[in-house]
Each structure stands twice: as structure tokens, then as C-alpha cells.
Amino acid sequence: MADNAQRLKTRHLTMMGLGSAVGAGLFLGVGLGVQVSGTSVLISYAVAGAFVAIIMWMLGEMAAARPSLGSFSTYAGQAFGGWARFTMGWLYWFMLVMVMGAEITGAAAIISSWFGVAPWIPALIAVVFFAVVNFAAVRGFGEFEFWFAIIKVAVIIGFLLIGLLMLFGALPGLDLDRAGANFTENFMPNGMPGFAAGLLAVAFAFGGIELVTIAAAESEDPANNVATAVRAVIFRIMVFYIGSVLVITMVLPFASIRDADVAADSPFTLVLEAAQVPFTAGFMEVIIALALLSAFNAQIYATSRLVFDMARDGSAPKLLLKRNNSGSPVAAVTLSMIFAFGSVALQYWNPPGLLAFLFNAVGGCLLVIWIFIVCSYLKLHPILKERGELSTLRVIGFPWLPLFTLLAIAALLILMLLDPTARNQVVAVAVLTLALVVVSFLVPSVRRNDVPA
Questions:
Q1: How far from 321 is each of 8, 122, 300, 313, 330, CA to CA, in Å?
Q2: Domain for residue 444, yes or no?
Q3: Cα dihedral sign for 431, 432, 435, 437?
Q4: Domain containing 246: what range?
Q5: Transmembrane region positions (predicted)?
Q6: Is 49:413 a contact under the CB 8 Å cutoff?
Q7: What single-letter DSSP state applies at residue 240?
Q8: What is the pLDDT of residues 165-219, one digit of tens each?
Q9: Is residue 446 assigned to a domain?
């Protein structure tokens, strides 16, 4: 879609992966897991990180062997046929479009409060601006998202350094005796049920890394770039999340760590205030707004490239193949923008039951996508190996590691069914997935374009 001079580089892919998984959910929502499972949430993050790392390892192997803008939806189609390609592609598109609507709403609320204007004004400006960014050549998008991600990563690294300085007494705010007692006494305050709830709270924290495998298809050297980016992103994100939670749980009284709606209540803000860093609430507001806008920008890219790729084989309308002179899929970008606006409007309208159902479905979409990634890998790995298509990025322990991962997903599914709130997510995404499967069999072009392995 772009000549080599305009393609993404490894640094773009790496920072896009980091930026897409490090967002407002970390800065505002990290306290939720601590609240329900205490400091044992560190184990939850380690388990969730390792779990997602294995899934990304499998996806990375397939992406390095067969780079595709469709990523896991393409591999699902190659493994199981057009219905799987259609279902996975549109399920992911739906998930990101709904999340895009929530993110632009959150960013607009913060920015509008700075200037005393109605939220729709910064929302409209942001949408127009990011549409222009995504209509440009992919290299421009990559450069823009690279610097967006640099800011977020720099904040996390700075936060960890401040925590280290507090630990050695160079900054105020940390009493080691109190920190030790705080950590041990609140390790698992609600027992195993609380730990299970904490695991659910952080299970999808690393979602977003899969964007790397979509973007890799527009990079200079897809096979090598995706291998390098996947290895780098997984390790760094685990360090960022676990390191941040460790600092938060050591510095703050347990009762003050909670899920935050505004920057002033963020655990990050409270830690920086304890270290007597000035202007913390305002600073974190800026960072959270940037995180939301960065995620919005990345998701426009991911949704547009995905449906563009699906249009090639009849899983999406051929109209979405339209590109501009820079190679950007303008029709696909426009579609994403229209539905993102629709998601925002839906939140204002808020019809009884519908919005709750849609956002519950969003909560379970990653679970279905993970299942298909693992199953696709089980089917395709022997074929890729036999045909000599594998790159340097290879998963060990076939087939036992993928089968163990499926068991872990099944265990997570059982935990979700036992939790009243999470159960609604399972039901909603099951209904949505089944509906997409049915539609796939009703669309003639999907049946005609089954992609062989």
C-alpha cells in the first residue's frame, strides 16, 4: 500500500505496541485490581502478562511467516474458512469502534474543562485532525503515533524512577516500615475470591498489543520487524505495569488505592503528590488526555486497515478498497470515523439496555479473539513448518504450550461465568459472535472466497 520509503520502521511498530497497551486504563483503572485483591494483584499482572505474551508469541510467529493487514482474522480464515475470517474481522472492528467512541468522549470531557467549552467542540476538532493524519501516508501516521507513545512511556519511566528515589530516601513520601506492613497485611484481603476478581480485573489490561501484527504488514521488513517488535513490546509492558503497581502499593495507604474517574484520584497522581512533585493533577490530566487520543488514533488505523484487507476477499464491501494518492484506505478510514461518531451519539442517547449490552460484548471480544488465535496457530503451525515458511520467531513446545493456553482461557472463562458482572460480558459476546457467524453464511462472497491454508 506504500512504497518502501513511506513504510513503517521497527521503532514505529515497537512504540505503537507499547502505546496501545499503556493508556488511560493504566493511569486511571490500575487501582481497581488492587482494591479487590490487594497486593496479590502483582501476581495477577504477572500471570496475565505471561498469558498474553504466549498468545502474542503465537500470533507473531504467524505474522512473521505470512504478514497481513488482516492479522488474526486472516489466519482464522486460512485455518477454518471464510466464516472465521469474517467473524474475527468484524468482531475486532466492532470492539475497537465502541472503544474509540468511549475514548474520544473521555478525552473531550477533559479538554473541554480546560477551555470552558462544550465537549463536542474538542471532540470534533480531534476527529477531523486524526482523520487527516490517517488519510496521509502510513509513515506519517507511524511517526505521529511514535511520539505520542514516547510521551506515555517517558511518564511511566519517570514514575518508576521517582519510586526508586523514594525507596532510597532521596524523595519524601515513603516509610519503608509502613510500606512493608502495607504490602504484607493487604496481600490477599478478600481471600481467593478477591484474587480471582483481581485476575479478572487485569486479564485484558494488555489488550492492544495485537496492533503490532496489523501494522507489520506496512513495514519495511515485515517478517523481521514483527519478530523484533513482539519480543520487545511484551517484556517492556510487563515491566511497566508490574513496576507501576509495585510503586503504588508501597507508597499509598491501601484504603486510598481505588478505581479513579478523574486524574486527581489516579494512584499515579497520589504517588507524585506524596513525593511532593508540583502540579501533579494537571500534569496527569494532560497525560490521560494524550493517552486517550493516542489510542483513538491507533484504533482508527487498526480498524481501517483490517476492513480494507477484508474487502479484498469479499468479507467486507468492495467500496472499502478505495485508496487515495498516498495509499491510505480513505473509504475504510471514513467508515471507522462515522461509526466512532455513532458510538459517541449512542452514549448520549443511551437507550435502555442497548448500550450496556454493547459494552458488555466489547469486554468479552478479546477472549473470543484469543481463542481463535490459538486454534488458528494449532492448525497452521504444522503447515508453515512443512512448507518452510517459518521465520526466526518460533514458539516452543508445540502442541503442548498452545493446548495449555487453551486450558488457561477456559479457566478464565469459568471465572467470568462465576462473576455476575463478567457473566454478562460472556453472554453478550456469545450472542454477537453467533450473529456474525450466521451472517457470514448468508453473504455469498464470504462462501466463495474461502482462503486455503
A1: 21, 30, 16, 11, 8
A2: no
A3: negative
A4: 4-439
A5: 12-34, 40-59, 90-111, 117-137, 149-174, 194-217, 238-257, 277-296, 330-349, 355-378, 398-418, 424-443
A6: no
A7: H
A8: 998 888 888 878 777 777 888 888 888 888 888 888 888 888 878 888 888 888 8
A9: no
